[in-house]
Amino acid sequence: MESEKTYIKDSILSTADKERQLILDDNISRYNRAVQQSISQFSNLELARRRAGYIRYKAINGLEKYLIEFEANFERNGGKVIWAQDSAEAVKEILNILRKNKVNLISKTRSLICDEINLVEKLKEADIECTDINPGDFILNQFDEKPRHLSSVLIHKSYHEITSILEKKFNVSFKHNPIEILEFVRKNLRVKIETSTASITGANYLIADNGSICISENSGEAVINNSLPKLQIVIAGIDKIIPSLMNLDALLPLYATYSSGERINTFNTIISGPRQDGEKDGPFEMFVVLIDNGRSEVMAQKFQRRALGCIDCGACQNVCPVNRKTFGVSEGNSYSGPIGSIITPWMKGLEENIHLSYSSTLCGSCTAVCPVDINLHELLINNRSDSISKKNYSFTEGLTMSTWHQVLKNRKWMDWGKPKWKNMLLKKLYSNRWGSDRKMPTIADKSFKQLWEERREGIN
Ligand code: SF4
Predict the structure, then answer these.
(1) Which of these, 185, 207, 240, 306, has the minimum number of CB atoms within 10 Å of its CB?
(2) Tell me: the pLDDT tens digits for 229-272?
(3) Which atom of ligand 1 is nearest to the CA of 337?
(4) Which residues are within 8 A (CB) of 279 and not within 5 positions of it... i.e. 6 or more apart?
(5) Which segments within 35-169 are labelled E, that is strand?
(6) Which of 124, 157, 122 is nearest to 142 (CA)?
(7) How confident is the model at residue 459 (pLDDT cuts 50, 70, 90)?
């Protein structure tokens, strides 16, 4: 399969990039220290995780009810909800709104779903300029790279790389002061924001009981995006729903802790609709585009639907020993890491994407860290099992596995042939997939059974 081949090829390159690995290790260590400090705010972290997990699971299980409740309440507040089955429909609806309002310059906050539906490219094709007003996204764009991390888009970049690219692209010079860089980026973005007539924003949560949108971030971009432009479009996956405003109390501190190591994010914005009579700021018109784009397929899976409770903190990416080496390469999805490996095969096609569910050691670190208590490593096994039940494997794969099965369950076959021959056969069959950077394990001269028998017979 093409996507699997590309994934393996790119993963080998990424794993061999020692410099990148060092930068990642360094940045993740810093993140880990911050998280450790922040979790001290929970008197009972396990209880907090279970509570948050229950809220998200309850929301996912009652999706239809809560989405309709959200729609009714948001429209009562003066906004308009649009439902989109897939990314094409979502893009079409967004373009319709922008064209109707003669918009040619918009500002966009950090949003995974915008990456998922390729919105920036589609807007560009329609001659609409879209500026990323999140400082991290703005800097990453200078590298011509797509985000590979759910929450920390620059976690694989060093301070030196960031200053160098900005100095080169903007002909400026920095005195190695991060604040100076941030101010430079903000100044650049400010001009764009002030001239934008519309804004596009993601959503952390859609709150059913009062029809509001909650955005939690540290750079203040959502506040600006909600205050200045006259037209605001919020794009969200249908899985972002939560039953009540009261649920934020459980979710926001956990999100801040596990996404950035903060106790609580600096800006937590709750938007309930367009500007009301007498209000001095806010958009005059506001839309929420609710996107399915394969989420119903995840919902249809008995166990894996639990993955839709994800709050996009990225913690599972940081702990996963496989993801730390491959680091989201060529997955081509906005959801990378363990959570991406669970939902992508259902959202984008099992056959083409099931290899992602095998890119895990199943060590369980992802499950142990997840703030909303998703049993990620078990869901990866569910994916593998479902894929096998659907006979999603090639003839050669099927034949190989059934041969191994026969050999391993039969002692006579296990003992057949000399270790030297077996090693030659294994090398011939698997050395390509094993790769040249690792030494292939070899079969010992004597099996455990032989050693055991010799011991019992007193030979050794
Ligand atoms: S699955 Fe859990 S740990 Fe991973 S990004 Fe989602 S909420 Fe965070």
Answers:
(1) 185
(2) 899 999 999 999 999 999 999 999 999 999 999 999 999 999 99
(3) 4
(4) none
(5) 80-84, 105-108, 129-132
(6) 157
(7) low
SS (H, E, C) 371-403: CCCCCHHHHHHHHHHHHHHCCCCCHHHHHHHHH
Q: Can you tell me the mean pLDDT for 282-292?
A: 96
Give the pLDDT confidence score for residue 332 in this predicted structure.
58
Residue 366 CA, closest ligand 1 atom number: 3
Q: Are 303 and 89 in contact (CB under 8 A)?
A: no
Residue nearest to atom 4 of ligand 1 (CA): 316
CATH of 2-295, one of 3.40.50.1000, 3.40.50.10420, 3.40.50.720, 2.30.140.10: 3.40.50.10420
More confident residue, 459 or 313: 313
**Ligand 1 atom at shortest distance from the alpha carbon of 313:** 8
Tokens of 281: 């700021």
Residue 177, both tokens:
């002061």
Write the DSSP assignment of 249-292 as a string of letters. Answer: HHHHHHHHHHHHS-SS-SEEEEE-SSPPTT-SSS-SEEEEEEE-
CA-CA-CA-CA torsion sign (43, 365, 363, 61): positive
Query: 241-242 and 231-237 as β-strands: parallel, antiparallel, unpaired?
Result: unpaired
How does DSSP classify residue 441?
A: P
What's the 298 CA to ligand 1 centre distance in angstroms? 16
Q: How far is the CA of 361 from the centre of ligand 1 (A)?
A: 17
Tens of pLDDT, residues 299-309: 999 999 999 99
CB-based burial label for 459 (10 Å; 0-12, 13-18, 19+): exposed
Find the 375 Cα to ligand 1 centroid distance in Å.
10
Residue minimizing CA distance to atom 3 of ligand 1: 370
**Residue-level pLDDT at 329:** 63
Output the pLDDT for position 221.
84
Indicate the domain borders of the chain: 2-295, 399-456
Mean local confidence (pLDDT), 428-447:
86
Distance separating alpha carbons of residues 364 and 355, to the nearest angstrom: 18
Return the residue whose CA atom lies nearest to atom 6 of ligand 1: 310
Ligand 1 mutation pick, 148, 153, 312, max ligand atoms within 8 A of CB: 312
pLDDT digits (tens, 9 = 90+) for 37-61: 999 999 999 999 999 999 999 999 9
Pocket test for ligand 1, best of 55, 216, 339 (most atoms within 8 A of CB): 339
Kindly give the number of the ligand 1 atom that is closest to the alpha carbon of 317: 4
Ligand 1 centroid distance, CA of 407 (Å): 39
Residue ranges lining ligand 1, Cβ < 6 Å: 150, 258, 310-316, 339, 369-372, 374, 376
